[in-house]
Amino acid sequence: MYLLDTNVVSLLAPSKRRTPSDEKLAAWIVERSSDLWLSVITLA
């Protein structure tokens, strides 16, 4: 199980130019997608 920080997720934003290391990160995320989690707090 992996807890991803928001800065990791933001590296894959569609508006950003991707580097080779970003592509490696994207592949890693796809391979482990069932083991990835985000910590989220919602305030209303």
Brief digest:
This protein has 44 residues and is α+β, with helices and mostly antiparallel strands.
Q: With helices defined by DSSP (H or I, 4 residues minimum), what is the helix count?
A: 2
Look at the structure and give the mean pLDDT: 89
Total strands: the figure is: 2
| Largest beta-sheet details | 2 strands, parallel
* Helical/strand content category: alpha+beta
Low-pLDDT segments, ≥5 res: none
Strand content is 5-15%
Separation of termini?
A: 29 Å
* Rg result: 12 Å
Helix content: 25-40%
SSE series? EHHE
Spatial order of the strands in the main sheet? 1-2
Overall geometric form: flat
- How many domains is the backbone divided into? 1
Helix-strand layout with pairing:
Elements: E1 2-4, H1 6-10, H2 20-31, E2 36-38
Parallel strand pairs: 1-2
Task: Describe the structure in your own words.
- The protein has 44 residues and is an alpha+beta fold.
- It has one domain.
- The protein contains 2 helices and 2 strands.
- The protein has a two-stranded parallel sheet with strand order 1-2.
- The chain is flat.
